[in-house]
Amino acid sequence: MTTTQVRGTCPLDCPDTCALLITVEDGVATEVKGDPDHPTTAGVLCTKVSRFTERTYHADRLLYPMRRVGKKGEGKFERISWDAAIAEIADRLGAIAARAPQAILPYSYCGTMGQVQGESMSMRFFNQLGASALDRTICANAGFYGYRYTIGATIGTDIEQFQDARLIIIWGGNPIASNLHFWMRAQEAKRRGARLIAIDPYRSLTAEKCHQHIALLPGTDTALALGMMHVLIRDGLVDEEYIAAHTIGYEQLKVRAAEWTPQRVATTCGISVDEVLGLAQEYGATARRGEPVAIRVNYGVQRVRGGGMAVRNISCLPALVGAWRHAAGGVQLSSSGTFPLNKAVMQRPDLLKGPVRTINMTTIGDDLLRDTSPEFGPRIEAVIVYNANPLAIAPDSAKVMQGFQRDDLFTVVLEHFQTDSADYADILLPATTQLEHLDAHHAYGHLYMMANNPAIAPLGESKPNTEIFRLLAARMGFTDPCFAESDDELAAQAFNRQHERAVHFDWESLKQKGWQKLAVPSAPFADGGFPTPSGKCELYSASMLADGLDPLPAHIAPYESVASNPALAAKYPLAMISPPARNFLNSTFVNVKSLRSTEGEPHLDIHPDDCAPRGIVHGDMLRIFNDRGSFVARARVTTKARVGLVVGLSVWWKKLSTDGKNANEVTSQALTDMGRAPTFYDTLVQVEKLAA
Predict the structure, then answer these.
(1) 3-state secondary structure of 131
(2) 3-state secondary structure (DSSP) of residue 626
(3) Is 429 helix (H, G, I), strand (E, B) or coil?
(4) Residue 534 and which of 161, 480, 515, 591 are 20 to 30 A apart at CA?
């Protein structure tokens, strides 16, 4: 028996981007474990990725190209050859492109975060074709906008510093489920005497293990941050020296913050005055003692109408107390802006022959149903889905399904499994998994450039995304030399080696070692130097004003809440959020039996006080509904959900859920205040017990 160990990288949409060691015996991957030498992975993997081989060798893996033979959505296919599949796709796309190339739409997101298998050869293909552009907004765009308006780029506190903080605020996230290696650092800080505070409408696994949990109403994080500013300024807990040297707009901010008294904030957020005061005073007093205070803000806060502003408001706080002076102080939303990515080289936007329209992936439900018009442009006639599962993850799911059911829509899906979206494909193509192809990775939770080496040969006739788009390009007669570049050649261009942060980047050596840290200071803004137009932390943002936004931190009420829409709330009185289930990653792993068995079935967490008037007891089957649709889940009666809130852990495949639907039946296509992002957690519903 020949046994080897191959260096890889977890490709999934998670900030941890773990370094993997894959054991291969006679060409078969037998074990995937974390690299003990990688400083953030530290030999530890989550329960999901530790089952990577189970997913790779799953009995339901797609191994051959297939053509639909039943109705759309039935999931009936026949096997065909690659030559036949590529010819049919190229012929159909070619005919559409000859008269209306923008009627063709790619639909993809972060099924892989790789720079090669993500958006490299695929983007070159669609740029050459002249297809519509896709606005990839479904996860983080609102927060990115708010953070960049304030800080300048998604650069923040290094995860490797958090264990030295004395106070850590975990705001809008559940790292035990979705950011395990940050949680390991937070736990170490706790062992050293640090205080941990969770801010989350739901008492998550993480919130249960923090010293304090503040359960505010969904969509009110903007107000809580303003209340903290009010108390910090009123009580003299700000760092006047840092503010004077490294911020802009403090005097204007003081006027705005004065409006947000602890009483007003408590009423808006549905919490106590003491919680507002205690949070602000502890944050400010700890910083005044010269001790590091850190905030880990996550994407939960930005999935509401004012989501971008929420992240902006929170991101102002470290500058007010001088937290950036310390390596273990500041805030982290994402580290992705630290990486000098060569996107223009990888994606080749210069191949476009002119401007094209942009379709927002969040509003795909509406957009697939639009007719040709001067405002919209041509009706969408073809969709190529890869690295995504829109039938499960896009909001207002009934409309998404209606769009994909169109008989005149040509749909191609690149997948590992026959997902909800794959059931609507005209042509279904088998893609390789991370163990079967090469890739280069950056991270959004640490500062290491990463390499993924293929550990095993592709299963069946599966091919990497890059190879599929090379074949399509060749069949369609695209002759630019960029379409002949190998995956190795692509990966070697992923990072800008001329940039000071990646000055020692060399792809061949990265493949050998597996990872390499960027050359960055441990405290990125200790001496200011923010990458904003002013070079300072922008408490007042002229860029926001120019973009038609309030230039100061503000509160933006949710679309759907008792306070903002009492008439709707009278009909649908319960707020609903749908955060990630611990054993799924978005819709990935739902079909892995061991993980799905742990989750059991779709549940709805609901407070006892909301159950009593509805006659609901633990274990009842419930119908959750609003004007957009409904889904079914089993009741878990618990105080983890605050009164007036229900929680449906997600995202289940529809075909594997109780009634063939999931939580996105009730979410809306309304967009955030900035970044054109979804508002998954800005949802009102009613709940009723189903008859036995």
Answers:
(1) coil
(2) coil
(3) strand
(4) 161
